[in-house]
Structure formats: structure tokens, C-alpha cells
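thought: user wants a sequence for this fold. calling inverse folding tool.
action: design(structure=
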């Protein structure tokens, strides 16, 4: 038990002494955690922002030490405000002004010997660890983000089509209105896909894997954004047309509508083959039901086009 207690302490001291000679590099560990925190849109940008904010705060804090110490509280407030304001002008994420303000306070509170150059070196070490893990060892794949957003959007639209089919089979106008609301609620997944597209664009500049596939990612992200919006809008228009037609013409649905909705549900399943587009004859229909079939055909065409948007695979080649 004694050997197990002493060995980590001895190893930690040797590693710190080997790098910077700091016996307790607390700031390095904290910085690594800040850089690798889950839920960040881009860990590389976070790491760069941390080191930039700390550098700004240390410089401002060192400059504030030259001011007269007649009112210490006023000097701390002025240094903190100045560091935050300077860091805000960089146009970087919130972590930059936060780290700048904290660093300025630490320099004034703990002295430049411990919170100045020493902290800056510790932060540089922690940032390096964060970049190593986020950019080389465990680089996030922006294509996976696009695929996840694509699957979520199509699943939401497919569930709305299923509810529309159930409403049509039961001849229930209330269910048709619920299906319309379900189509409208799919906007949340569309927004999630838009976030994934934005993250992919950022990753194309701020991550190693993204830079290696930057050309494909930017083209695919732009194409994905246009086609996903069109698929959502076309499905929503179909839901609105169906709810209106069932309200005006209950029990008069064309025979081709139910199989068409079933085909649309299957089209939204990424694990199923797209198959051929079903025939939706418009002859002999009144305006309301003709509009429903036209909207269904437009929605299926938009979803088919969205599914055929090309994504680069892991080797960098495009796949259909």
C-alpha cells in the first residue's frame, strides 16, 4: 500500500520537473479540461481561445502592477475590465474574455511569479494536451455530424407521414391537424442539421481531419443545407394540403394517396432502398385532392434529392 501511495506522487514530480520544473501544475490540468469539455462545437478553437485569453490577461495584469497600489480594489477592477474589453475585441468565443479577466485577477492576487509566466507555461502545456487529443488522437468527424442530422430530420418527417397516413385511413380531421403539427415540429431537427452543417464548416478550418477534407466538406455542407430545407418545406406543404382537403372533402380521398404516403414513409428510412416513385394520377380529381397529390409528389422528389446528396466517406472519396 505504501508503494502505491508514493509512486504516483514521485512520477508526477518527475514529469513536471522534466517539462517546466513546476511541482504542482494545477493550471495545466484545468486548461486541458476546459479545452476538452464535452458539448463544444470545436475543441481546437476552444484551445486557441484559452491560450489567447490567458496571454491577454497576464499582459494586462503585469501592466496593472505598474499602477500605484493606493486603492488595490480599484486596480483589480480596472485590470479585469480592461482585460475583458481587450479580449472582447478579438471576436472570439466567450472563453477568451473569461480567461483574460481571470488571468488578470490572478496576476494581481497571487503575484506575477506564480500567476504570470508560470501560469502561462502551464496553460500552454494544457492547451497542447487538448490539441493533441482533439485534433490528432480523437478528432471529431464532421461527416458523422451531417449523417446524424440527416437521419434525425428524415426520421421526424417520416413519423409525420405515418401520422398523416393514419389520419387518412381513419378519415379523422383532428389527426390530420396533429400530423400537420408533427410536420411543423420537424423544424427542430432541421435546425439541428443546420447546426451540424455549421460545425462541419468550422471543422473544415479548425480541425486536422476537417482541413484534410475541407474541399468536400464545404461543398457537401452547402448542398446539404439547400436540399434539407427544401425537403422540410415540401413535406410541410403536403401536411397543410392534406389537412385542408380532409376538412373540406372528408371521405373522398383518391385511391393513390394512401400508397403514396406509404412510399413517402419508406423513402424517409435511410436503411431502406428508395425504390421507384409511385404513380400519382391526377385525372378526375377536384382541386383540393389534386393539390394534395401534387404536394406529395413534390415532397417525395425533394426527399429523394436530399438523400442522394453526396457525402465523403472516411477515405475522402465521395459516396452516393
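)
observation: tool returned 320 residues.
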Amino acid at each position: 500500500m505504501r508503494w502505491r501511495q508514493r509512486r504516483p506522487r514521485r512520477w508526477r514530480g518527475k514529469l513536471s520537473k522534466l517539462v517546466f520544473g513546476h511541482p504542482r501544475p494545477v493550471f495545466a490540468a484545468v486548461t486541458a479540461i476546459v479545452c476538452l469539455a464535452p458539448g463544444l462545437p470545436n475543441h481546437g478553437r476552444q484551445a486557441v481561445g484559452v491560450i489567447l485569453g490567458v496571454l491577454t490577461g497576464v499582459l494586462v495584469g503585469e501592466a496593472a502592477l505598474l499602477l500605484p497600489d493606493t486603492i488595490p480594489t480599484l486596480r483589480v477592477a480596472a485590470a479585469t475590465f480592461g482585460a475583458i474589453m481587450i479580449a472582447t475585441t478579438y471576436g472570439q468565443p466567450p472563453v477568451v474574455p473569461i480567461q483574460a479577466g481571470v488571468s488578470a485577477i490572478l496576476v494581481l492576487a497571487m503575484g506575477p511569479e506564480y500567476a504570470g509566466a508560470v501560469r502561462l507555461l502551464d496553460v500552454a502545456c494544457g492547451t497542447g494536451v487538448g490539441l493533441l487529443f482533439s485534433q490528432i488522437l480523437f478528432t471529431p468527424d464532421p461527416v458523422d455530424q451531417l449523417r446524424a442530422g440527416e437521419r434525425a430530420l428524415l426520421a421526424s418527417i417520416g413519423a409525420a407521414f405515418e401520422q398523416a397516413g393514419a389520419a387518412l385511413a381513419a378519415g379523422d380531421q383532428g389527426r390530420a391537424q396533429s400530423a400537420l403539427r408533427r410536420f411543423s415540429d420537424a423544424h427542430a431537427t432541421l435546425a439541428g442539421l443546420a447546426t451540424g452543417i455549421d460545425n462541419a464548416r468550422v471543422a473544415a478550418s479548425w480541425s486536422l481531419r476537417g482541413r484534410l477534407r475541407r474541399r468536400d466538406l464545404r461543398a457537401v455542407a452547402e448542398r446539404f443545407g439547400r436540399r434539407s430545407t427544401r425537403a422540410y418545406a415540401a413535406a410541410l406543404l403536403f401536411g397543410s394540403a392534406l389537412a385542408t382537403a380532409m376538412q373540406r372533402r372528408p371521405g373522398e380521398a383518391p385511391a393513390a394517396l394512401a400508397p403514396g404516403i406509404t412510399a413517402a414513409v419508406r423513402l424517409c428510412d435511410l436503411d431502406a432502398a428508395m425504390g421507384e416513385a409511385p404513380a400519382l394520377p391526377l385525372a378526375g380529381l377536384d382541386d383540393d385532392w389534386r393539390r394534395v397529390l401534387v404536394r406529395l409528389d413534390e415532397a417525395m422528389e425533394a426527399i429523394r434529392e436530399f438523400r442522394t446528396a453526396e457525402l465523403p466517406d472516411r477515405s475522402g472519396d465521395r459516396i452516393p
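thought: summarizing for user.
answer: Here is the designed sequence. Confidence is low (pLDDT under 50) at residues 1-17, 312-320.
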